[in-house]
Every structure is written in C-alpha cells, then in structure tokens.
Automatic annotation (TrEMBL):
Keywords: Acyltransferase, Calcium, Metal-binding, Transferase. It comes from Triplophysa tibetana. This is protein-glutamine gamma-glutamyltransferase. Ca(2+) binds at N437, D439, E486, E491. Its EC number is 2.3.2.13.
C-alpha cells in the first residue's frame, strides 16, 4: 500500500473522492467580524442572492453522450462545454455583479493541485484551467457555459455558486444534486484518450455488453459478458475502487496512471482490490469464476460490502470487470484473448516439456505450462512518456501473475512496442512479449535422468490473439498487431531486438532437421463424447522412415497445468519417401471422464523416433471439450412498458447427478442479476426457469444466462433483440425507474426439488 501513498513535498495528497470538507456558507474577508449579522450584511452589500441552480442534467447528458448512465446527477466529459442556469433574486449585471463558481473534489481542496477550481461568471475575470462564459441573460436567469480542462481530474466534483461582496463570499448551501461527475473524453482530440472513429467509440466506450473468447485456437468459442458500465451504482463503485486503494486525486487526470493503478486494484493479491483470484477448484466460500454473468453483480457487491474483495475470479473475470471500470470512466477499452499463452515463466522465452526415457510425458518434472487461453485488456490512448509511434492500444492485465514495482499488476504496455521487440519502455513489456513468443522446448530423459533437447517448437505459443469485432459477436484476429509472421525475416529481427533489450532468447540449434514433420489433429467434441486423433506424418526425405510413436493423454486445466494421465499408447509406422501417412487413435469417453477437472481439456503429447536417422521429434495438441447447450427464449413482443417472458431450459445429458447448480439470468438495461439454485439435476433430468421482464428503455438489448456447478462449467448462452418504443406509454419517471431497479435486486431462491 505504501507504493500508492505518494506525496508532494512534505504534504500527503488527498486520496479520496468520497470524503469532503465542510465549507461555510459565508466566508468573511475580515476575520474580526462578529458572527451575528455578518451573513445578512454580506447579502445586503452584494444586493444579490442565488435562488436556484439548474444543472440541466437531461440536456447536458445528451450532449456529452452520458445519458445512458443510470445516475440522477450531471455527468460530463473533459474539454466539452456544459451549461447551467442560475436564477438570482434580481436581474443580473455581469459588468457589476461579482459571482464565481466553485468545483471541489476531495477533503483537501487545493488550487495548486487542481482539486479546487474557481471560475468567474461576473465582472472579475481570471485565467483558470476550466473555462467559462455567460451565454445568455434573461433578467434573473443566467445561462453559463463551463468547460472542464482536457486533463482535469476524473471524478465527482461538488459545486457551489458564490456571490462575492466587499465583506466576503456568500456560498450556496451544500447540495448533492449539483454535484458533477467529470469523465475522460474519447470524442475530443485534446484528451489523452481521444479515439478518431465513431464506430470504435460506440464499441469500445458505449457498448455495455459483449463476448469474451475462450476455448482453443483451433476451435474458438465465447461466453457473453454484461459490462453494465451505465447501471445504477456502477460509476460510484468505480470511484470507490480508486478511493479504497488511496490513489491520490492529483493523479486521476492522467490516463496512464489510472490504468496502471487499475491493473493492481482489480485483484486483491496485495491490497483490498475487487476480486480474489482462485484456480483451485474449491469455491464453497464464494462464487465460482465460471458462474458470473458480468461485472455489475461483482462491483455492486464490492461497494455494498465496504470495499471488501469479492470471491472468486479467473483471467476472463478480471478482464471483464476491468473493462467495465475503464469504459465507465470514459476510457476506450476491449478484452483480448491470447491462445496458447505462456505464463509464470521468467521472461526468458522458454517453456520446457520433459519426456521420460520411454518418450512419455513426465508429469512430475514438467513444471512449465501454457494456458489454453489468457484474457487481458487493451486501452486506446496517447502515451506522452513514449515515442508517438508507440501510442494507440496498450496492454493492461489485472490477473495477478507477477509483481511490477512491488504490486501484482501489468501495464500499460504498448502493443506496437511489443511487436517491434522494443522492451525497454514502461511498463512490463518483457512479460507481455514472453506470453506471446516463448519457445516450447522438448527434453528427453535417459535412464540416469539426464535430459537433452530433442525438439524446439518456436511457433506454438501465441498461436492466435483475438478480440470482439465492432458491431459483431465474431472475433477479429489481431495477432499481427502483436507479432510478425512466424519464421519471417521481420520476426527474426524482432527477436534479436528483444534480446538486445534484455530478454534472453537462447540458441538451441543447430538441431539437425529431420526432414520429417509430425502434426496431431482432432475434432472438437462435446464433453462425454468419444473422439479420434489423427497423427499426420509427412516424410520430405528421399529415404524410407520407420518411426516408433508414443502418445500420452492427460487431463489439463485451461491454465495448462496437467492433472492425471489417462491414456498411453504405442504405434509403429513406416513412411515412404515424399509420402504422408496418418495414424488414427480412438479415445473413448470412459477413458477421460472419470479424471476430468473443472474447465478441463485433454492434452495429447506425441513423441516420435526415426530409426534410420536416430532422431526424435515431438508435438502436442489440446482438445477442448465443449459443454452441453443452455436454451434461452423470449415470448412476446419486446416493447417499452410491455411484459416480456423469458424462459431458460437445460437438460442434463450425462449419467451422473449435477449437484448444487446455480442458474443466473442477467441483462443490462433490462434486469438486475437473477439467481436460481437447484440442489440437484438427475441424469436425463431438466430444469426450466421463467422470469417476467418489463423493458423501460428502447433499443438493442441482450439477455445472458449462465449455468454452473462443480461438475460442469462454462455453460452459457445469450439472446439479442430490439426493444421497440411505445408512443402510448407514459414517460418513465426517475421515481418509477428507481422503484423498478429496487424490485429487481438480486434474489436468491433455493429450489429443493431436483
């Protein structure tokens, strides 16, 4: 925590948006004035008083593209003017009357730290970071335009209107309704997070629902995620995260600083961050990472329980919640999935696979692992601390893996710098580079246990890097933004640059090329189905090759950590010159089902020895087991003010009982998370959950359903539809909306029937 308690000079910075100091309604210039009568005298001296301040919330929110936030206060963006109307008790004269507006944030407002902003709307003009102008005067009503500085602090400001007289300042009473939230502004070129294309802003700032890609690079799958950055309470929860970590207010206008802090604040590894990471498979003290439908339930729980970390999360949960945090504050952000992602190594670009003397995978000695997939985030921004060519998308990762400057965090790291091998720039570029470029080194042990390198695969790690495509749930392949094509001249130059920048690449060659290629192929199957493996051997030499093949099959977590070995098989094959032979090996469901672990996949490692050449080669293949289907349907016409029925159904296709099943239904802008529990679902049994929804807002909507239990993870589905307007429906008031939201709070109903 000490790393975050920064100081300027000898004075500690204010570190809370929530805490505030009490300001007197009257502040005399002459401290010797008697309290009695002073305020009245000041009012008479100024001959002016403020009757009301209209923040023009509806109009300003529409102009600032913040009208989606379910928050009754004014929310604006940096460097864009908003207007307010001040009503005085008499006609206003801007040449004679002296009136200022105050905007304060935190408990220790200070003009020198931009936590206390004063702007003039009367005769006394002064240069300040925020700009103001009198737009219109209609007698007692004065319309004022105010423009926050393009680099000002992001957070909730208190506002006061002050009438200044010779005796002192007469301030309007404290009124939370006149508080103003200021956000980053990707629509303005002066802001650090400016994004040029409107299509990109719609996707990476305003889209409140998306998909996160999981599975395997050979069969990309996805799960829906409710970001919900506009839902009631989420903006305050995001500011609470910064407060709980005591991030100084003076740093909250710098996107680089906010992003770096956020990567640490979202995990609870070394502080009271939002989420507790857990890969153990034991989640009885919290919620399984696979059970969440999105970020809103997590963030509201964190805020409601006083900044207490929420259990539990894995990489896509960290990425999903961080994405909500970033988009909520106005930072363009997206979730990235890197397939075959090297993790927890020393950054030396080495991942070691150990085979025993018989050519079978040595589970005990193989310590390194390659995750099937790993999720992180990218944020679009200018990095004034880097050369301009390294601006744009920056990697930020909240999954606690390695420490950076004493805290578990990663980034922001320039994607372009990673691609070019320029790893000396901040922050954590070496770690990100290693995730995408580690070499897989196969070692074979002899009878004494001594190992030697038999094969190096330089192209396995970082096979595919994807993100959600704009206006689509399909993935966009962005691998080329991180790395040059494997084996290309530019890729070799990049690796050399990385080595000059401090990453130890290592030279494993010369390993004599055998002239024989071996590839393992398999179809994606559903959990509980049989599968067939094809080992394709291509002989590119002019001699016949006789090979002995050894296959080892392990159950493996999505993190690449192996569990039990369930299959071992030996085969012999002869491949004629310039020919290709394919070995087919059958794998029965009964062989692997008893050994499955959560989110399990099957890892097959194949070792081949060529007798004529006395050379070896190796290959591996991960087979993703797809979960069964979850059905979600709607009945009725989606229309504002009209009841809509939602039905979620699931059939247990297995010969074992599913116990302690959780079913969640969620929809941003439609309902808060609904939770239904089932004690058990018997083999062949089914469940059906129905829920009534009355949409309040028109537009494109998404409903997300997730079923989860210890025996079955990642069972998800979603349905998208358009909610139509209804002209005859009365306008929805804030009171009605608040009442509806209150009724839709999470309800946990336990169903004791199977």
């Amino acid at each position: 925590m000490l790393a975050r308690n920064r100081t300027v000079g000898r004075f500690t910075n204010a570190k809370s948006n929530t805490f505030e100091s009490d300001l007197p309604e009257f502040e005399p210039y002459n401290k010797g004035l008697e309290p009695r009568g002073t305020q009245d005298e000041a009012t008479k001296a100024a001959n002016l008083s403020v009757l009301s301040v209209d923040m023009r919330v509806t109009e300003n929110k529409a102009e600032h593209i913040t009208d989606k936030y379910k928050n009754t206060n004014l929310i604006v963006r940096r460097n864009k003017e908003f207007t307010i109307i001040i009503k005085f008790d008499r006609d206003f004269n801007k040449e004679q009357d002296n009136v200022v507006m105050e905007f304060l944030i935190g408990s220790k407002p200070d003009e020198n730290k931009d936590t206390y902003i004063t702007i003039s709307i009367g005769k006394e003009k002064r240069d300040v970071s925020w700009k103001s102008r009198v737009i219109n005067i209609q007698g007692k009503d004065v319309t004022v335009g105010i423009t926050p500085d393009p680099s000002c602090i992001v957070g909730r400001f208190r506002s006061f209107t002050v009438v200044v007289s010779d005796l002192g300042k007469q301030r309007t009473p404290r009124n939370p309704d006149t508080d103003v939230y200021v956000l980053f502004n990707p629509w303005d070129s002066a802001d650090q997070v400016y994004m040029q294309k409107e299509e990109d802003r719609q996707e990476y700032v305003l889209n409140d629902v998306g998909v996160i890609f999981i599975g395997d690079f050979s069969e990309v799958s996805s799960r829906p995620w409710n970001y919900g950055q506009f839902e009631q309470g989420i903006l305050d929860a995001c500011l609470l995260i910064l407060d709980a970590a005591k991030v100084p207010l003076v740093y909250r206008g710098n996107a680089t600083e906010v992003i770096r802090q956020a990567s640490a604040l979202l995990n609870a590894q070394d502080d009271n961050g939002v989420l507790i990471g857990n890969w153990s498979g034991e989640y009885s003290e919290g919620t399984s990472p696979t059970a969440w439908t999105g970020s809103t339930e997590i963030l509201l729980k964190y805020a409601k329980e006083g900044a207490t970390p929420v259990a539990f999360a894995q990489c896509w949960v960290f990425a999903g919640v961080l994405n909500t945090f970033l988009r909520c504050l106005g930072l363009p952000a997206r979730v990235i999935t890197n397939y075959a992602s090297a993790h927890d190594n020393t950054g030396n670009l080495k991942t070691d696979i150990i085979l025993d003397e018989d050519g079978k995978m040595d589970k005990e000695r193989t310590r390194d692992s390659i995750w099937n997939y790993h999720c992180w985030n990218e944020v679009y921004m200018k990095r004034t601390d880097l050369p301009e060519k390294f601006w744009g998308w920056q990697v930020v990762d909240a999954t606690p893996q390695e420490t950076s400057d004493g805290l578990y965090r990663c980034g922001p790291t320039s994607v372009s710098a990673v691609k070019e091998g320029e790893l000396s720039y901040p922050f954590d570029a070496r770690f990100v580079f290693a995730e995408l470029n580690s070499d897989v080194i196969y070692h074979k042990a002899d009878k004494t246990g001594k190992t030697k390198i038999i094969y190096v695969d330089t192209a396995y790690v970082g096979k595919l890097t994807v993100t959600k495509r704009c206006n689509s749930n399909e993935y966009e392949d962005i691998t080329s933004t991180y790395k040059y094509p494997e084996g290309s001249l530019k890729e070799r130059e990049t690796m050399q640059m990385a080595e000059r920048r401090g990453v130890s690449i290592g030279n494993y060659f010369p390993l004599t090329e055998a002239g024989v290629d071996m590839e393992v192929q398999a179809d994606v199957v559903k959990m509980g189905e049989d599968l067939k493996l094809n080992i394709k051997i291509k002989n590119q030499t002019t001699e016949k090759c006789t090979m002995s093949i050894i296959l080892t099959g392990c159950v493996v977590f999505y993190t690449g950590v192996t569990s039990s070995v369930f299959k071992s098989e030996n085969k012999d094959v002869t491949v004629e010159p310039s020919q290709t032979e394919t070995l087919q090996i059958s794998v029965q469901a009964v062989e692997y089902m008893r050994d499955l672990v959560e989110q399990s996949n099957l890892l097959f490692v194949v070792y081949g020895h060529i007798e004529e050449l006395n050379q070896s080669l190796s290959s591996m293949k991960v087979v993703t087991l797809l979960p069964p289907a979850l059905s979600i349907q709607i009945t009725g016409t989606p229309q504002v003010g009209k009841e809509l029925m939602v039905s979620v159904e699931f059939l247990n296709p297995y010969n074992f009982i599913l116990k302690d099943v959780q079913l969640r239904l969620d929809g941003p802008g439609l309902i808060r998370t609904k939770l239904k529990k089932y004690r058990q679902i018997f083999p062949g049994g089914s469940i059906k959950f129905k829920e009534s929804i009355i949409p309040l807002i028109s537009g494109k909507k998404t409903l997300i359903a997730v079923l989860d239990c210890a025996e079955l993870r990642q069972v998800t589905n979603e349905i998208k539809f358009e909610v139509l307007k209804k002209a005859t429906v009365k306008p929805v008031t804030e009171e009605v909306e608040k009442e509806t939201i209150e009724k839709e709070r999470v309800v946990e109903n336990v169903n004791n029937n199977p």
